[in-house]
Amino acid sequence: MTLAARTNMKVWLSLPFLPADGLLRLSVAAEDAGVTGVALSDHVCVPIDFSSPYPYGGGKPVALPPEAELPDPLVAAAGLASATTGLRFMTAVLIAPLRHPVLLAKQVATVSAMSGGRFDLGVGVGWLREEYEALGQSNFDDRGRVLNEMLPLLRRLWTGEPVAHDGDHFSFEAVAVNPAPQADVPIFVGGTSNAALRRCAAFADGWVGANHSVEELAGIVGRLAKARAEAGTEDRPFEIRTGIRGTVTRDRLDALRELGVDSFLLAPWQIGERRESIYDLPVNVIVDALPELVELIRTA
């Protein structure tokens, strides 16, 4: 492997469970440290009682406390863009089926305009049935098909031209959504099911991963390549953006490069000393430790 091939992995910083002032401080610090972009997570609300299984917990039950800080990622991205100049932003991932596509198209187009095109839309179907129910959504069991209908519709709405639609899940007379993005908004799709990977292959510019081991990622990347070949999209530009479960090491980074990972998604709890809770992240410690770890990822 040549040196050029070893030094082109981009670094993205994931910023879940942080208050608004923490998002601002870490976004500015990330830009100063040479991070390409930050990823913002999404839960519209946290049900007090839920039994839905978390799909990426490695078999462990998930705790999502009601006091967890979860600023709206689209609002946050627009605000953080005003405090930075080159940093990109993405949702990782937005639970798109909770939104109407016309409203979502408007929100994303506005974020794109306010950030100068520095926004990527990462979407998924979510896992928390009780969140859907709290918002009066009865489509949890059909949420994958809802998202399949939404993704090409969003691209049509972003043209700024009148769009009418009559689908299985949404129907409306001709409407126009403006401002239209000045450039295409990249779409990333998350999820590891066969349906999610087919969705990604058919509609997306890239795949975004969550809490996976290197071995799990190897299988996902192989299945994704197969899905893209079956969809006839294997020659379309495509990016794999993911992190790993556990400690960031040179060996693991090398393994991700061998798999074709383009961007490493760094979790804040992987920076500095190990801590007991991901819901109590010391922003000062992360800011101080970030540059060294970013340099490791970029040059390992």
Topology:
Layout: H1 3-6, E1 10-14, H2 20-32, E2 37-40, H3 73-81, E3 88-91, E4 94-95, H4 101-114, E5 119-124, H5 129-134, H6 143-157, E6 163-166, E7 171-175, E8 187-190, H7 194-203, E9 206-208, H8 214-231, E10 239-242, H9 250-259, E11 263-266, H10 283-299
Parallel strand pairs: 1-2, 1-11, 2-3, 3-5, 4-5, 5-8, 8-9, 9-10, 10-11
Antiparallel strand pairs: 6-7
Helix pairs in contact: 2-10, 3-4, 4-6, 6-7, 7-8, 8-9
User: What is the CATH topology?
Assistant: TIM Barrel
Q: Helix-strand pattern, N to C?
A: HEHEHEEHEHHEEEHEHEHEH
Query: Uncertain segments of ≥5 residues (pLDDT<50)?
Result: 1-7
CATH C-level name: Alpha Beta
Our Rg estimate from Cα atoms comes to 19 Å
**Global mean pLDDT:** 94
Can you offer a commentary on this structure?
Residues 20-266 form the Luciferase-like domain. This is Probable F420-dependent oxidoreductase, Rv2161c family. Pfam families: Bac_luciferase. GO terms for molecular function: alkanesulfonate monooxygenase activity. InterPro entries: Lucif-like_OxRdtase_Rv2161c, Luciferase-like_dom, Luciferase-like_sf, SsuD_RutA_monooxygenase. The longest helix has 18 residues, at 214-231. The protein has one domain (3-299): Alpha-Beta Barrel (TIM Barrel), CATH 3.20.20. α3 packs parallel to α4 (101-114), α7 crosses α8 (214-231) and α8 runs parallel beside α9. β6 (163-166) and β7 form a beta hairpin. The chain has an eight-stranded parallel barrel with strand order 1-2-3-5-8-9-10-11, surrounded by six helices. A two-stranded antiparallel sheet has the order 6-7. The protein is α/β, with parallel strands linked by helices. The chain contains ten helices and eleven strands. It has helices spanning 3-6, 20-32, 73-81, 101-114, 129-134, 143-157, 194-203, 214-231, 250-259, 283-299, and strands spanning 10-14, 37-40, 88-91, 94-95, 119-124, 163-166, 171-175, 187-190, 206-208, 239-242, 263-266. Helices cover 39% and strands 15% of the residues. The radius of gyration is 19 Å and the shape is globular.
